[in-house]
Structures are given as structure tokens and as C-alpha cells.
Amino acid sequence: MKFSEFQSIIDPTRMNRYLLACGGDSKKAMTLYRKNLKLSQELFTVISCFEVALRNKIDQHYTGKLGTGWLRDAASLGGIFAIQSCRTTAQTVYDEVLKLNDHYSPQKLVVSLGFGFWRFLFSDHQYRAGGQDLMNIFPLKPTSTPSIAYNAKYVFNRLAELNDIRNRIAHHEPICFAPRMPIKDTNYARQHYHQIITLFQWMDIDEASLLYGLDHIITVCDEIDNL
After folding, report:
1. What is the DSSP letter of 122?
2. Model confidence pLDDT, tens digit, residues 148-205
3. Calculated CA dihedral for residues 178, 184, 188, 190, nearest 10 degrees
4. Rounded to 5 degrees, what are φ and ψ at 161?
5. Alpha-carbon Rg of the chain, whole angstroms?
6. What DSSP letter does each residue of 181-211 carry, written as one string?
7. How far is CA 129 from CA 55, 62, 71, 89, 121, in A?
8. Contact 131, 65 (CB under 8 A)
9. Is 184 helix (H, G, I), strand (E, B) or coil?
10. Model's pTM, two decimal places?
11. d(C-alpha 207, C-alpha 184), whole Å
């Protein structure tokens, strides 16, 4: 396809950033656009696997403490999240229970809640309400040092960063550029990828086996860097 056709379909303003990053080479600009899509696809898949693993670890943790129906119970009168400081969390769960109606089951409730919900279980109020032991799902996390505390706040902030890149990909924003600049750069994607791998390892999950055949992120990043 000619660049003029490609540009008219995708959007001239959007493609201009790719063109600038490739020094005006229209063929490379189209290639970069396609490789950004490939990288987004690869990274979104890995993030999705991480999200499922994280929520299942959290569910297993609280099920062991509070029982199978812990999540609905937590949002019910007298539940751990039925307090003023956790009202948004409780309302989110309550709303999902209403949506499920007669189709409710503990597992269906767990899978109906998004990444943001699970992230906020590491925020101050929710973490305390849950008993302050949710970090036990990371048995292989490193010991805190005077300069870095590997605590719930640290995990909350890392999950916020992963949520941001997840949303960028979901909204078709490019992840192959330096921040706010038309410069080809895969550091943003690489950093988030390595953070996911680190958290998998902290959870004592063999991420290489889990992602076998799915993870080609470093390969695609290298292709972009060498374009």
C-alpha cells in the first residue's frame, strides 16, 4: 500500500509522529506503525496473563482466611470493606453482585472485577481492612532496604504504572516512542515488561513456562530499535 493511502486510513496527524521518528522515510514509518501494533499486542497479552495470576493469588489468599464467599461478604454489612474508608471498594463489589443477580457465584464475581479493583486492595485503607497480610502473595519478594521498602505501597505504585500502560494500549496509543516526543524508543515498554516479570517471580510463578509461545516482547523491541 502506498503511504498516502495508509496515511489517509490511519490519520495524517497520527502518522506524522511515525514519519518524524523515521526521518521522513515513509516505508519505515508504516513498518514502525505495524511493529508498534505487534508490540502492543504482545504486551497486552502478557499484562492480561499477569492480571489473571494476580487476582487469583489475591482470591486464594482471602479465601484461605475468610472463606469461599469472602468478596461478597467483605462488601456486606459487617464485612471488612463495609467501612467509610473503603466505601468505593464495597460499592464496586455490591454493584457487580447485583449485575450477576441469579448467576452469582464467587468465581464469577472475581472475574467480573477489573485490574484497577485488585490494585486498590494494596492501597492504605483496603490493605489495613484486609488484615495487612496481602503481601504474603509475594513470597519471593526481596527484603526491604533503607532506600527501598518493598511493601504494599510499593506494589500499589507498580500496579498503577502497569494499569496506565494497559490503558494506553487499550486506547490505541503508541508505546514505541520516547515520552511526548517523535523519537523511536522502546524503554517505556521494556521497563513495564521487566516489572511484570519481576512481580511474577515474586509470586513464585514460573513466568517463562506460563508465557511460552506468547512472549516475544524483547524480540519486537529489538526490531523497533534496529529499524
Report:
1. T
2. 999 999 999 999 999 999 999 999 999 999 988 899 999 999 999 999 999 999 999 9
3. -160
4. -65, -40
5. 21
6. SS-B--HHHHHHHHHHHHHHHHTT--HHHHT
7. 17, 12, 13, 11, 9
8. yes
9. strand
10. 0.92
11. 28
